[in-house]
Model the fold of this input.
Amino acid sequence: MGDSAEKHGLQDLTPDGVKAIVDIVFVHGLHGNKETTWTATTKDGKVLWPRDLLPQDIKEARILTWGYDSHITHFWTKTSLGNVDTHARNLCADLSSLREYTDTTDRPIIFVAHSLGGIVCANTLVLSENSAEPYANEIASHIRGIVFLGTPHEGSSKTKWAKVGQQFVSLFKTVNKEHIQILEQNSIKLGAIGGAFETELRKRRESKEQRSKIEIVCFFEEKESPFGIIVTEDSAHLGSYETMSIAADHRGMAKFTSRADPGYTRVLGFLRRWVDSLMEEVAKAAKPESAVTNNKAWFNGPNYGGFMVGQSDAPQNLYNQYYGQGGPGLGNHGPGGLKPGN
Done:
């Protein structure tokens, strides 16, 4: 992926023949790459786990990885605080274009985000939810889960975000005082995103609509990078959502070597549960609307012939005719609904 254009935008890692009911989208962080961020090196070669491992365990997902210019001086700039907003809007637009082109706009979305890529995903939810554009609203309404790998969550605290910035610049050998100033100045922006994201999550939790709920899990690194822990457990923690660890440093926590890798199995457990839940939703939506409820047809009219039509005390032969094994049933009509994989 030498050409910079190849590093940006969406890349489909899904094996041929998959009938997907969900989109799982991987988003890298600062100085990351849509492939190398997720690639481990082993004695047998390289393992890009979204491509080489995940499809074996989640066969119902279209797996996408998204890239963007994540160099620290392009992620934020002194003169403009808008780049993190631009990344979020671009992610939203790229997803929308693909989903419209492939006629999959009703498909749920799960993000897997490493490091400050999690801030891009959080901002994507906030901006798309509050956008005047219907395509953006559609993306917001279908975000159903986010796995945060080493993403700091400091709410609206400018002071805490400034400290986070200093920890992140220690990761990169090319940083200088200008880079530190950029991150410290943009702590205001990060605080605004963090506060807005928490507000949006609170709204979703309080909603009575099941499809509004967003599943969240946060992971932090157990091992130190050369300059220490980059995202601590406290920093990774987000409200009442689960916080767990991965036995790697900040960069290594996004790279898994095999299906037996403890970090992989831990992340997979959450993804598998979320996808199973979404499959149940799809199955329920696929059931035809019917006048029959619990295998009985209810009629609130007058009592003719000594029984109420549809009541359980109806003559047994009539009941068996309509509701027994192999019987035709009543009210078996209506839209067929959705089918998994369409």
Residues 69 and 75 are 7 Å apart (CA to CA).
